[in-house]
Amino acid sequence: MNQFIKYVGLDTHKDTIAVAIADIAGGKPRYYGEIANTPAALTKLMKDVSPNGEVVSYCYEAGPCGYGIYRQISGSGHECSVVAPSLIPVKPGDKVKTDRRDSENLARLHRAGELTPVWVPDQEQEAIRDLTRAREDMKHLERQARQRLCAFLLRHGHRYDSGKSKWTQAYWRWLERIQFSHRVQHTVFHEYIDSVKQQQQRVADMEQTMHEALADWTLAPVAPCGRLVAASNIYLEVGQNESKIYTIV
Asked: What's the total number of domains in the chain?
C-alpha cells in the first residue's frame, strides 16, 4: 500500500459530507467537520487538507451518490478509493452510528489498509451500465403490466390453456376473442392490453438503443449478436478487466 501523509474518510450524503482525517504518524483520526456535497466545497476541502500540494488518499463508501466525488478527487491528482460497504470491518457491539463516527472510522480503516475498494467504471462504462439497468427497469414494468392483465382475466374466469405458452401469437389471438358483458369491464380490459403493448414497445426500443450504443463501445463483449445484451450486463455488473471478457454462448 502506498504511503500518504494523510488519509481522509468521507461519509457522503445527498446534501452533506462528513470529513475525518487520519495522519500517517498514527493516533485517533480528527474530525474536520461537515461540508456541502458540492464540487466547490470539495475543492476547498482538498486545498485545506493539503495546502502545500501534498498528495492525499481519500475514501468513501459506494452508494447512491455515484462516482462524481471519485472523479473530482482523482482528477485533482489525489488518490481516491470507493469502498464496499458490506466489507467494512465492524467491531462486535458497535451499533452507534453517526456521520462523525462513520467518517472517523473510514479514515482509520483506510490508513490501516483494511478497506476493500470496488471497481469504478469510467464515464463511458457507467453510461452503458445506466442503459442496461434502464432496460431492466423497462422489463420489470412489462412484467407488472402482464401480471395485472392476467389477474384481471383470472378474476373474471378467463383462463388460458395452462399447457401452452403465454404471450405468443396464439395467446394474443385468444385475447382478441374475449368478451365482457359490461361495457366498462371491456374498457378496462383493453386498457390493460394497451399497457402491456406499450411496455413491450419500450423494452424493444431500449434494446435497439443498446445494440446501437454497444456497437461503438470500446469494451464491447465478444458475444453472439443475439446475446449482446446479456453479455454487456454480465461484464458491467461484475466489473472485470478487458482481458477477462469471455465469449458467452
From this structure: 2
